[in-house]
Backbone:
């Protein structure tokens, strides 16, 4: 079992920035990728960004050019740098760990609110 602890969420004004972090612990052997999903009220959960253990990143179209996912290659933490935030980015952001054999682990979520 992998435990995921997210941090960095909060309230920011439009155009502002936040940096989310997700620290993984436990059985992290054979992790394939880590990523971030988000779910806004009344919407389905959606992929924001993911990154493989080799550093290959994938982004949802609605965050390309604004968000950057990264990881500490020598550790077990993934980050999401969010710039130029928009009100529509308001959601609960969930850290995800995808294992090579297909199992997924999820964090509890961290609230991001973009509002004036």
Residues:
């Amino acid at each position: 079992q992998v435990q995921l602890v997210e941090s960095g969420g909060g309230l920011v004004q439009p155009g502002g920035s936040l940096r989310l972090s997700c620290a993984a612990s436990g059985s992290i052997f054979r992790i394939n990728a880590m990523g971030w999903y988000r779910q806004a009220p009344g919407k389905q959960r959606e992929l924001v960004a993911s990154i493989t253990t080799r550093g290959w990143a994938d982004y949802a179209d609605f965050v390309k050019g604004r968000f950057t996912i990264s990881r500490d290659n020598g550790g077990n933490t993934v980050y999401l740098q969010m710039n130029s935030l928009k009100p529509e980015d308001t959601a609960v952001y969930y850290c995800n760990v995808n294992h090579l054999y297909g199992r997924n682990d999820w964090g509890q979520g961290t609230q991001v609110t973009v509002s004036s």
Summary: The chain has a mean pLDDT of 93. Residues 4 and 24 are 5 Å apart (CA to CA). The longest strand covers residues 18-26. The two ends are 39 Å apart (CA to CA).
